[in-house]
Request: fold
Amino acid sequence: MWGIRFTRSKLYPFSVFANTHLKSKPLKPTRYQNPIFETVGTTRRTIPITGPLKFCFPFQSSSFTSSIDFSSEPKVDNFEENSDNDDGEDSEDFDGDSVNGLSFSNDGTVQDVKRIMDIIHESGSNYVEMKNKLELCDIRVSSELVVEVLSRVRNDWQVAYMFFLWSGKQSGYAHSLREYHSMISILAKMRKFDTAWALIDEMRGGRSGPCLVTPQTLLIMIRRYCAVHDVGRAINTFYAYKKFKFDVGMEEFQSLLSALCRYKNVQDAEHLMFCNKDVFPLTTKSFNIILNGWCNAIGSPREAERVWREMGKRGVRHDVVSYASIMSCYSKACNLNQVLRFFTQMKSMGIEPDRKVYNAVIHALAKARHVKEAINLLKTMEEKGFAPNVVTFNSLIKPLCKARKIDEARLVFDEMLQRGLTPTIRTYHAFLRILRNGEEVFELLEKMRKMGCQPTSDSYIMLIRKFSRWRQFDNVFKLWNEMAEKGVGPDRSSYIVLIHGLFLNGKLDEAHKYYMEMKEKQLLPEPKIDKMLQDWVSANVQPVGTWPLNIEQEGQHNCCSWG
Reply:
C-alpha cells in the first residue's frame, strides 16, 4: 500500500510555492539576497528571509528518515540516471564541486606550488606568519597555481581561505569561475556556509564587473546541504535560481532530486517528486533517480520494488536504466535469481540490455562464484557490440578477490591491460584489501603510482585501518605523513580512523594528541570518540577490548574495510 500522506508532508510548502511561482509567467529579475542568511552591518547573523520567496520553514529531514543509519557524508558516485554503475562503487566520480589538481603547463608553476606548500607546512597554524611569508615569496599567481594549491589544502579550510584571499589581491590576477567554485566547495564541505555565501555574493560583481554565478555554483551549495542532510536549505537554494534569472525547469528539478538521493535523502526526494507532480510531471527519468537512490544509495531491494511497482501503476515506462538500477541492487544483495529474472523480463519486453545491464549481471554471477558463466556473458556482451570497460572488469576482479581467487583475479587484470584499459583506484582497492603484510602493500602502492594511479583518501584510510589492526604503527604514520605530503588529507574520516586505531591499541596519549589536533582544525569529532577520550582525560579510564563506535560506517568514504 502506498502509505505517503502528501497533505502532511513537510514538503507541502514547496508544492504551494512551485505551483504559485514556477508554473505561471516567466521569472522576473530581482535583486539577489542569500536565501538562507543575511548580513547586517559587520555582524553575520541568521535571519530567515520570508519574501519575495514567501517560503522559509523549519524543515527537518529526520522526521521520516530517522530509521536509516547515515554515515557522516554518504555519497554515491556519479549519481545520475545514466551513470555506469555496476555495484554502486565502480563508477567514475564526477561531483561537479570537487577540487581536482591540474596538469601544469610549465615547470615554473610546479616549483611555485612547491614553494607555497613549503611555506604552508613551515608555518603550521600560525596564519600571520604564513601570510607574511606569502607576501615576501615573489610568486606570480596564475589560475592553475591557485587551483592546485587549493586541491592540496582542501582539508584545511582556514589555510585554503587565507591563501584564496591572498592570491586574489595579487596584481595581474583575478579569480575565475573555477577558483571560486573550488573555494566554495571547500568551505561548504567544512560547513562554513556563511562564508561560502559571502563568496557567491562577491561573484555577482555588482556594478564593477560581470556576474560569475552560474547554475553550477548553486548546485554546489545544494549538494553540500544535501550532504549534511539539511534538506530545507537545499530547497531554499534551489529557489535562488529564480533570483539569478536562471531557468527553473525539469532539468534543474531533477538535479535537485539527484543531489538529495546522492547523499541518502531518498525519502525526501521521493516526497518532493510526488508533491510537485503538477509542476514537474512524473517522468521515467525522475522515477529512475528515485529508484537509483533506493538501489544504490540506500541499498534496499524492498523499497526499490515498491518504487518499481508504483511506476507501473502510474503508467510510467520502465527503460533500460530502470532495469540496470534494480538489477544492480539485487546484485549487491547477492540475489542472483532476481537479477536473472529482471534480465529475462527486460529482454521479453523488447528492451535491449546495454553495458550497464551486462555489468550488473556479470557482477552478480561473479559474486555467486559462477565465474565461467560471467566470462561467457562478457563474450556475449562483446558479440552484441558492447566493448567491456573498466567497470566490467572490476565487476569480475572484486568478487574474485573477495573469494580469495587471486590467480584468477590477476588473469582478469592482465586481460584488462592487454585491451588497453587503465585500472582505476577501485581495481587496486580490491587487491589491497586481501594483502596480508606491509611489504606487499607498499609494493602494490609503488606499482599503482608507476601506472599513473595515485592513492586517494579512501586508499589511505583503508590501509591505516589495516596497519592499525596489525599493530604496525610505523607504517601507519608513514602513510599518515604521506597523505599530508601528497595533499590528499588528512580529513575528518582519516582522523577518526587513526584515533580509533591508536585508542584501541592502548596508545592513549597519541590518540588524545590527534584528537586535539582534529579539534584545532575545526573538524567535527565523532561523538562517541569524543566521550571516550573525555572520560579517559578526566578519569584515566583504560580502554576495554571492544569499541562502541561502528567505525566501519563512520570512517568509510566508499570502501575501507578491515583487510
